[in-house]
Each structure stands twice: as structure tokens, then as C-alpha cells.
Request: fold
Amino acid sequence: MDAKAPWAAESSFPRSEIHKIAGEHIGARLSFAGVLKNWGAAAAITVAGMSLFAAQPTFPSPPTDAPTISFPAPLPGPVPGSGAPVPSIDPSPPTASRPGRPAVEHPPLPRSVNIQLKVERDGRLTVTEQVIVQAKDTMTREVPLRIGDRVFSVRDAKVDGSGTADVVGEKFVIRLNEGVSTVQYTVDGAVADLGDHQQVRWQVANGWSTTIVFLRASLLTPEPGDDPVCLAGASGSEDQCDSALIDVSGILRIIQSDLDAGHRIDLSLNLPAGLVPTTARFEEAKAGPFALTPVSGVALGGLALLLLGGFGALWLARGREATAVSAPVEPVDVLATEDGRVVFASPDGVLPGQAGTVVDEVVDGRDLAATVLDLAVRNYLWITEVAADDWQLVRRNPADDALTAYERAVYAAVLPDGTDSVTVSALRAAAPDVSAARAAAYADAVDRGWLSRAPGGLGRWGLIGLLLTVLGLATTVVLALTAGHALAGVALAIAGVAVFLGARFLPVRTQRGAALVQQVRGLSGYLRAVAPDSIPVADRELVFSRSLPYAVALGESDAWLTRFAALDVAADGTPGLYWYGTQDETYDQPRFAERFHALVDALTGIFTKH
Reply:
């Protein structure tokens, strides 16, 4: 090669063109060499060679600044046609500058990310992220370092640009300001052993505070992997990335556009078994405050038993109450002999208004009217007729301690302090407020143990349920913020709600109240069955009068008045009823019955208004 002329190595002409030009002259000289073939082959070849060199044309020397083309010799490699890639020879570009179109610089795309990931031989995952933040803006990324029981760790984080990258608790937090920044860090725990293969996994994008317009990432591994999975979207979604392909060099490349703020790109790639050391770390996730623990499990089990037992108790209570109320009863003898006189004695000391309340669990207008009549029968009021359809209620004796709070409330509603008399027509025109009397009647029935609560009221069990609910909610908050096991507090709160609701379905009447209902039903039987002739004549007016308010409360007044239609009110030595005055010169029992019904209806209507 040294004997060649300089242009032989640097000529810009291809060798094929040189040979073509030289071949034209070679053909002219070879005709003379053919005549000399009898002189011997060696001499002919020698003469032909000399003639060839003598006939070579001359070329001007190329300029010194002409570009050169280097033709490196190909290395031994695959045979063409074998299927393996055949190396090509690329000429080196000219070193001298040539005039041409100036290069166009593309401005960086704001909110775009370019990521390079590499699995190192020791199992580490090194990551380089180039992030372009829009002018006058910031971007923040919060990467969770725990996914279920899988734990990752990030170290050696640094930022080339304007921003920070730090591990805060169980999050890797990147904060970047405007411009281009490059973040580098190392991830431990990305490679897991899955038996017959390994898997590298990392969320290459997660928790960005703004939409990522364009993201490009590449994953380089010691050996090519397979079965890449790239999920993009909200956590838990199965949406695929725009593109996730392994190129011919074994590099996994992914592309994603318009990734919404807070969404993630979860990337995984299978690797051959034993390729790199396994770094995945699994830790049982710390039980959250509302996780099922032995303590909360016991509480929930207790709740289940409580609910089951409470339902059974409620069913038994309602069944027992229904049986007690509907059982057949015999008439109750409410007449007693006292100092040689026959007197009326109500069962369990129940008052007329209370009897009606216990039976239907409601303080209605008829119960209050019966109470007013009872106050008259017991000499606290005097009732007298003042017109064909009007009566006057007169204070006879002041309310004393012998009256219950319920009776005093009724007395005060009819005759307030400073009022000694009132007409029924005046009460009809301005009905008194008897809400206090109703409340007192319910409270009295509860105090005596006949009712468990006022209808619509909380009652004892309702109050217990409410307190348990409040206590359970407070316990839940305290446990959630401190020791956990917050489900125990939830169980307590649910138990409270169950007790509160169950109390609404408990019978309003207690067992004692149910027994009293039986006695009151027996009293009704007495009012329907008693024979006036069985009562001494001198005691008939008192028995008739004392029983009459009960007959009103229990709806037996018609039968009771009919039964005593022949009553001689003067048999005791005094004309007329001792608590009721008429406008007639002589007492007429049938007329009294007629007028009495009108009085009861008037009082019932007045008290029903409130």
C-alpha cells in the first residue's frame, strides 16, 4: 500500500469507476500480447504487465481540502441469508463544514417528563427523570413507598435544577419550580422473585399535582425482559398505557400522553429467574384504626350476641304483653265493706283517667273529662246546671296533697288560681291548655310502673341507647386517633342505636301495667254485671257516683246509667246527688242521664282541642 500514489487512498472516485476507465486501455494492449503466446507464458505475462502500466492514464492531484471516505473492512460475521443481521458499513460524515439550512430548535414541551430507568446488576433500580415545568408554575409529585404490603425505599435523591426531592414518611416527594430539572434517585425493593421468573416494578409516574402532557420512559435491564405491563390511570384501574414495547435492543419503551393529575403509571417487566439479586421487601401493613383486630373482633362478636339477644327479648316482651292483655278475665269485685258501709275500691288504686290511659296508652279528652267528674264526686268541685246546654264548675275544696300531680294539673286547667267558678260555655269558647295535664298523666303512669315511657318518649331503654350511641361515637374517635381498634367503638355505637330503636318497639305497658289492664277489664265486667239490688240502699248513691267516672273513662257510662235508672238518690236522707245540681225541683234520674251525656260530650270536646 505504501507504493501507491497518495490519490489511490483518498480519491473521491469509486474503485469501480477507476477500473472501468483503466479497462479500456487494457483491452488495446492485450491484442499484441496474444501474438507472443508462443514465446512462453511467463514472458507474455511480463510484457502484458509492462504494457498495462505503460498505458495507465494520469489524473490530476485532488485538492487538499477534499472530503475523504473511509472504507473500513467488515469484520467476519454472519453469512447473508442465514437470518442473522448482517453488519453494514456506514461512511463517516465529512469533517469539513458545509453550507446548508440552519437547524431548527424545538422549544421544550411544558409539563412533559422523560424518564430513564435501569436495573443494575446488584438489583438496584436507578432512575433519572427530566421534568419540564411551565413558566411561573410549580409541579409536585408524591410517590407512595408502600403499596399494600410491598415496601419500596428511595435514596441518593438529588435535583439538578430548581427543586427538592425528599423522603417524607412513607412518601417520596418531589417539588420542582419552573424550567427544566433533572431528578436522580435509586430505588430499593423494585425486583421481586416470582418463582420461575423475576419481576421489576415501579410507578414511574404517580401523584403529580398537574396533568402530564407527555411522558416518555425507557427501562434498561441486564438482559431483555418480556411480558411488560403498563397501566395508566387512576389507582386500581386497568387502563393500558398508550404504548409499551420492547425494541430490538431489548429496551422497554413506553409513551403516555395526557396523564391526569393524581393518576399513576404502574410499570412491571418480567426478567429471567436469578438475573439479579431480589430486593423486594414485604412488610405486613400496619393495621389501620378501623382494621379488624382481635379486640375489635370480640367487640363485634359481642354486638352480634347483643343484637340476637335483644331481638329475642323484644319478641318475648311483645308476645307476653299481647297474651296478658287478650287473656279472658272475670269481673272484678271492686266493692268493699268499710265501717259497715259498702264502698267502691278501684284496683291498684287506679284513678278513672289513669284507667283509660293504661288501657289505650293515650291520655285523651275522655280521660280528662272523667278526671273532672271524679274531682266533683270527691268533693273538690260542684257541678250545677245553669242552662239547657250549659253547666257551671264551682270550686268546692282547694286542691290538696291527696290529689296526684296529674289531678292538680287538670284542676288548675279548669279553675286557675283566682278563679272560683267557670261555665262550660266559657271553656268551650276558650279551651284551656291541658298539655301539662297530659304530660303529668303520662309521668304519673310511668312513676307507678304501669307504663315504661310516655308514647313517643325515650323511656329508660331509649335513654340508655342514646347514651351508648354517644359513648360509642366518642370511643371510636379516641381509638382511631390513639390505639386503633376503632371498630370496638363502632360496635358500641351500633349497639346503642340498636337499643334506642328497639326501645321504640318495646311494649309501652310494663308487666305491672299489663296486669292492671286485666284488672281494669275486670272492672269493666263489674260495671256491666253488678246488680244495684246487691248494694245496700243507703250506699247505692255513693257506689253509683264513685263508679260513674270509671264508666265514662272505660266507655261503660250508658250501661251504668241504665242499670241505675231507678236509683233513689234520697235514700241516704238528702235529696239529689251530692255533687251535681239541677234546675228541677225534684231529681229525675232519667233526665240526669240525658243531661249527663251532654256534659261528658261537652267536656270531652273541650279537652280534645288541645
Notes: The two ends are 130 Å apart (CA to CA). Residues 294-326 form the longest helix (33 residues). DSSP finds 15 helices and 23 strands in the chain.
